[in-house]
Amino acid sequence: MTLHDLLEIIVPRGWFLSVTPGTRYVSLGGAVAADVHGKNHHNDGSIGRYVTDIQLYLPSGEILACSPENNADLFWASIGGMGLTGFIGEIGLRLRRIPSAYIKAQHHEASDLDTLFKLFADSTYDAPYTVAWIDSLSRGAKLGRGVLMCGHHAELDELSADLRQHPHSLKAARAIRIPFDVPPWLMNPYSISLFNALYHRIEGGKRSSFITDYRKFFYPLDALLNWNRLYGKRGFLQYQCVIPEPHAYEGMRKLIERIVSSRHSSFLAVLKRMGPAGQGMLSFPMAGYTLALDLTLSDSRLFTLLNELDELVIGYGGRTYLAKDARLSANTFRAMYPRYGEWLEAKRRVDPGGCLSSSLSRRLKIGEAP
Is 131 within 8 Å of 39 (Cβ atoms)? Predict the structure, then answer.
């Protein structure tokens, strides 16, 4: 079952996911196995916090019921365990009651990274859901400029009269299909700088709050089918890291400075504030700030840049997100995930032969001794 399938059932009945990532086209089991987080992590944590129990299919053929009270070590090894402890079958999940299928959103323009962090830290601008888009190519006095986007589930009295008649029903969405691979010469720092400047002006210029449906607020890219084709035939890499407090601002500034100096372009650069870490042994979130990037795979120098970013992240006690990783090294993984040894004990208890593996686990040697 995908999150899309689940939302189609629960939203018309007045319920929503307690935590959702930036796309609804992922499986519920995969979301739990990655312990996904969303725009509300600073308030509500990751999805593992709302999982009451899971049904785990083991390599032995046994089906094991796991929860925070029953087989707790295996439960927390599976929340964020990337599917390597067993196949997740049934899931018990706590949902959130919502007054409508709409979001009341408010944008706040930030002229630089310092202003953006001040907005995040100011309780005046806090909201149940907050995320910031940043211009990954702006430099100098405009380094890290962006738009803070806040929102909450709209109450009935915040909706127009026509929307109040059916507050949990939405019209069928029409997606735009990208019909061809964009030529690589169009994807250059100059064209992306122009796009970023335009986006910053339009989205940052929205001074008044506005009503939008939950799909546009949480899943903007889902409206573009085959959106990966915007990056051409070479494709792109995703990179997401988190840097803990109290040095998150310093670390993020150095990361962004290095990215800007490299001139590697990104349409999508997202900054979020994170709340306390979850209990999953290999869960990504920790208290601090996370930066997510989609980077055009223009040449091999991108891998050198990302290795340098890894070193910066490790130096500040942070980590990268396994659910988006395509090139991390085994040694770097171990430096970023200190509970790996604890996770390995639980893994070996239910999969002593190492039957369960993936391309990710084989590259990172997950399942081998620390």
Answer: yes
CA-CA distance, 183 to 131, in Å (whole number)?
31
- Does residue 247 sit within a domain? no
Residue with tokens 């991390």, as numbered in its chain: 328
Quick: pLDDT tens for 348-367: 999 999 999 999 999 999 98
Q: In whole angstroms, how far apart are CA 69 and each of 33, 54, 65, 271, 276?
A: 19, 12, 10, 35, 21
Are residues 26 and 318 in contact, defined by beta-carbon separation less than 8 angstroms? no
Place 137 in a pLDDT band, splitting at 50, 70 and 90.
confident
Rounded to whole angstroms, the Cα distance separating 213 from 229 reads 26
The verdict on residue 16 lying in a domain is: yes
Which stretch of DSSP H or E encloses residue 250?
Answer: helix 248-262
Q: Are 96 and 38 in contact (CB under 8 A)?
A: no
Read off the CATH number of the domain in which 24 is found. 3.30.465.10
| Residue whose C-alpha is closest to residue 319's, from 254, 263, 251, 250 | 251
Tokens of 92: 């018990």
DSSP state of 273: E
DSSP-derived 3-state class of residue 152: strand
- Tell me the per-residue pLDDT of 200-209, one tens digit each, with 9 for 90 and over: 899 999 989 9
